[in-house]
Specification:
This protein is α/β, with parallel strands linked by helices. The chain has three domains: about 70 residues, Alpha-Beta Plaits (2-Layer Sandwich), CATH 3.30.70; about 80 residues, no CATH class; about 140 residues, no CATH class. The chain contains ten helices and eight strands. The chain has a five-stranded mixed sheet. The relative contact order is 0.11.
Length: about 325
């Protein structure tokens, strides 16, 4: 397995705040520190870019920095390195576990919740931190999944909503491959995500029409009396995911992002939601046509899907390669 290594030194006269700032940046990137002061990340595009930006910043401070690709460390196997990454994320997740336990304790008052707004705000912050850590949990520590379940269980206990997905009628993808689809004009977040779902999982060349008046043979979505629409607290995208039984790794986080933007009920704390929301609003303000909105939306959600799936593509680069370090 290949790794990306970042090593740096700052002049002795640099302030402590500069050193602390770099240390915090490395922590947020999920890097682990090896003996000798080198920091390591798996060789992924975003990791290479992050280290290159840090190296540029160090040089602006008149310091020295080296970014290099490494395929083997003396005395340290890939298995041991992966274990170090998982242990670091386990530590981060444990901190949230402790705060979650304290939050539960502070909110308990018999059958009545004390200060519900404060408890919900605290839970949202913990879920956001869990999501932020998950983005640099490169080797998927089991602690992350367990903590995610406990956070979801606590929210469910605070605001019981049942499982609306259990009421969604299962559908066979094969029955919809030749169908023509229709939804309201000026597609926004939920409808654009549904259009991506249709083209990604049902039929890449599907006909999708934008109109307020569906024809009898069309499959309507996210509109009045639609075949697929909101159900309980599920947005249309979530209903279609449940109906077609889609379980690809990126689909669930996309569903949470769409839910947060569309319903704004605080049920999910996805850090990507604000950025996606701003982009979609910008397209509407730009006056794009329905076809342009759909085309842009397909590109956006396809890119988001690939990013959330945790692609492990390697970057072709001219970085120096060392086989010993």
């Amino acid at each position: 397995m290949d790794w990306i290594v970042f090593s740096y030194s700052l002049p002795s006269d640099r302030s402590s705040s500069d050193r602390v700032s770099l240390w915090r940046r490395l922590r947020r990137l999920g890097a682990i520190r090896l003996t000798g002061g080198s920091h390591v990340l798996p060789l992924r595009d975003e990791c290479v870019e992050a280290f290159q930006w840090l190296a540029q910043e160090v040089r602006q401070f008149q310091g020295d920095a080296l970014v290099m690709r490494v395929d083997r460390f003396d005395g340290l196997s890939d298995t041991q390195l992966i274990r170090l990454f998982r242990e670091a994320r386990d530590h981060d997740y444990r901190q949230i576990e402790l705060e979650l336990a304290q939050l539960k304790k502070s909110g308990a008052a018999g059958k009545k919740l004390k200060e519900p707004s404060r408890i919900l705000d605290g839970l949202r912050k913990l879920r956001k931190r869990h999501s932020d850590i998950g983005r640099v949990d490169f080797f998927e520590s089991p602690s992350g999944a367990r903590l995610g379940s406990r956070l979801a269980e606590f929210q469910q206990a605070l605001f019981p909503i049942g499982d609306p997905a259990a009421n969604v009628t299962p559908e066979a993808v094969s029955e919809y491959r030749r169908k023509r689809w229709v939804t309201r004009p000026r597609p926004h977040v939920d409808r654009l995500a549904c259009a991506w779902l249709i083209r990604r999982f049902i039929n890449p060349k599907a006909s999708i029409r934008y109109s307020l008046k569906p024809e009898s043979h069309e499959i309507s979505f996210d509109m009045s009396k639609a075949h697929f629409g909101h159900l309980g607290n599920l947005c249309t995208f979530e209903v279609m995911v449940a109906a077609f039984g889609l379980n690809e790794p990126s689909v669930r986080p996309i569903a949470e992002i769409i839910h947060e933007i569309d319903l704004r009920d605080g049920h999910y704390a996805r850090p990507e939601a604000a950025g996606v929301d701003a982009i979609l609003k910008g397209w509407l303000l730009a006056g794009l046509s329905d076809a342009e909105l759909e085309s842009h939306g397909i590109t956006l959600f396809e890119g988001l899907s690939r990013a959330l799936a945790g692609s492990n593509r390697k970057l072709s680069t001219n970085l120096p390669k060392e086989v010993r370090t």
